[in-house]
Amino acid sequence: MKIDCQIDNNTKTKTFVLEGELDVHNVKKLKSAVSESLEDENGWTYILDMGEVSYLDSSGLGMLVYIKKEISHEKGDLKIINIQSQVFNVFKLTRLDEFFNLSMK
Predict the structure, then answer these.
(1) Pairing relation of β-strands 45-56 and 2-8?
(2) Is this model's pTM higher than 0.85 or not?
């Protein structure tokens, strides 16, 4: 999995562009990337751009729940954008589409 982070200090936004599969083999890489970038300052928005994520398994879902909780603990907001339809279906089947702020590709 490839992860690219873009930071906009003016809007207090960090965007992580993900590419590949978010599965048991890659969750630690995502956790590390997001955890290292968490700000102590309130009001940051963290965006996961999943436009190039082709696969999501239960480990990936679990990590996204963990990341959302960590961001919420720091008074931040998490948005997951550009989700492909087959990945969005995983969110719907698990009803996590109601838990996350999601937008499809």
Answers:
(1) unpaired
(2) yes
